[in-house]
Design a protein that fits this description.
Blueprint lengths: L7 E8 L5 E6 L2 H9 L12 E9 L2 H5 L7 H14 L2 H8 L3 H8 L5 H7 L20
Antiparallel strand pairs: 1-2, 1-3
């Protein structure tokens, strides 16, 4: 008898409401995205709508659980690349809930402008390259 392993997805959502990020895990990514969309998740229902910006699939759950980022890694990346690309510390301070002095102290000159430009062009793979193709949503 063959042991069929379930795939575990690690995914990142971007809030279109407060611009924050949410990292989640699920064995059924399509179902979980529907739960986020219809405010059925207590973790995200107050901060939507959400956009799926990244996901990875794992057959070994230990690998998926170990995939987590260090605390605030995404926040620090966002701050560093945003400041390098848009050069607006006051706006970034407002978005991140910090003072402009804190932004300069922690995020200035950590990323080169060319790297920031490449970072902000990151996009999901074309449909043909996804591990799971989702059906088009009806309005």
């Amino acid at each position: 008898m063959c042991n069929k392993k379930r795939v575990l997805y690690v995914y990142v959502l971007h809030s279109l409401e407060d611009l924050g990020l949410y990292i989640g895990f699920s064995t059924d990514l399509k179902r979980r995205m529907a739960e986020h969309k219809h405010c059925m998740s207590s973790a995200t229902k107050h901060r939507g709508p959400w956009k799926l910006i990244y996901y990875e699939a794992y057959v070994d759950q230990r690998d998926a659980k170990g995939r987590g980022w260090p605390q605030n890694a995404l926040r620090h990346s966002f701050g560093s690349y945003h400041l390098a690309q848009f050069n607006d510390a006051a706006k970034l301070a407002l978005e991140m809930g910090n003072s402009p002095a804190t932004i300069f102290r922690h995020y200035r000159q950590l990323v080169k402008p060319k790297d920031a430009e490449r970072y902000w062009k990151i996009a999901p793979a074309p449909v043909g390259k996804k591990l799971v193709a989702f059906a088009a949503q009806s309005a």
